[in-house]
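Write out structure tokens for 3-isopropylmalate dehydrogenase.
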Amino acid sequence: MTKKVLLLPGDGIGIEIVAEAVKVLQALRNDYGLAVETETALVGGAAIDATGGPLPEETLQLAREADAVLLGAVGGPKWEPLDISIRPEKGLLGLRAGLGLFANLRPALLYPQLASASTLRPEVVAGLDIMIVRELTGGIYFGQPRGIRTLENGERQGFNTLVYSESEVERIGRAAFDIAMKRNKRVCSVDKANVLECTELWREVMIRVAKDYPEVELSHMYVDNAAMQLVRAPKQFDVMVTTNMFGDILSDEASMLTGSIGMLPSASLDADGKGMYEPIHGSAPDIAGQGVANPLATILSVAMMLRYSLGEEALAARIERAVSRVLDQGLRTADIHTEGTTRVGTARMGDAVVAALAD
Ligand SMILES: NC(=O)C1=CN([C@@H]2O[C@H](COP(=O)(O)OP(=O)(O)OC[C@H]3O[C@@H](n4cnc5c(N)ncnc54)[C@H](O)[C@@H]3O)[C@@H](O)[C@H]2O)C=CC1
Ligand SMILES: CC(C)CC(=O)C(=O)O
Ligand SMILES: [Mg+2]
């Protein structure tokens, strides 16, 4: 049966990188038997400009009806501060919550060809393969109350609330342990349980969940130490499970160990495996429109889509091999360019991946 994929390019480089991912999807449809049809809808700043709001009801409905969603990125200076293309009531966070996408998988995998592009020494990152499992629909990004209020003395005060219920922690814990069972059977839960009661509960629940996975070794780490350990000895980690905000920050950090934030894909899954797929980076207004953004994180997000939502493992592996192949050819966008390699733009990188699908 033909699967439906909803494309949400969004803003800034989102438009450029999704165009390259679409080339890959089209090649898989034309030449490799992928039964897929795509539709495109508005989200983020583009939707604000066209309809007055960042998440039109029609977009949410199309996303619900689709088998999977591919998102570029949203936001930009035009819609900041307090970027309304992202905020929980309706923007990107509203889309994630509206689809129930509580489990965000962010694999920090080093392609060996990019060892010299990593911020760490090649011997420290060789073989790096971490799966960051980030809780995506709770925590401080969603907690109530929130806002900016004026105190009696006239001073203004900003406030946000970190909230997790046991069931929210348990389901993300189970997602992380299930993934660990298919990997090296080690989960490191990252919290700040020495200061925040909310994450004291998080730790308790993780310990409880671990009892159902006797083969998996559970460890705990405070987030400040985890941030340091990631740049000291990242290969100590297999699966890291953490809160929405900590996972947001740690995954951007981990991306640089793989060469660039332009290399990290992600899958955001609901309880039934339906998902939205997106690079972990944002709309990169500083390079938008220049044709230099790295499309590989988005193309690798298509591979995750094929694996997790469309049941096409062989085609997912084909994309990942193609990415490896273009790196073998020495092709690099500016963010991963190193001496002796060939600098290419966004479109040429996308075309090269399409050509390498045949290998
Ligand atoms: N999922 C989403 O839609 C996200 C949206 N944002 C939004 O994006 C906008 C920009 O946010 P920033 O904090 O600047 O984060 P960003 O991730 O957009 O950019 C950070 C830095 O990484 C570079 N970069 C990002 N992706 C790249 C790629 N594919 N190739 C080469 N270089 C790349 C950018 O040029 C920039 O120097 C903001 O409006 C923010 O709210 C931020 C993060 C995620
Ligand atoms: C809405 C933000 C949390 C976007 C972001 O930075 C991310 O998901 O990585
Ligand atoms: Mg982020």
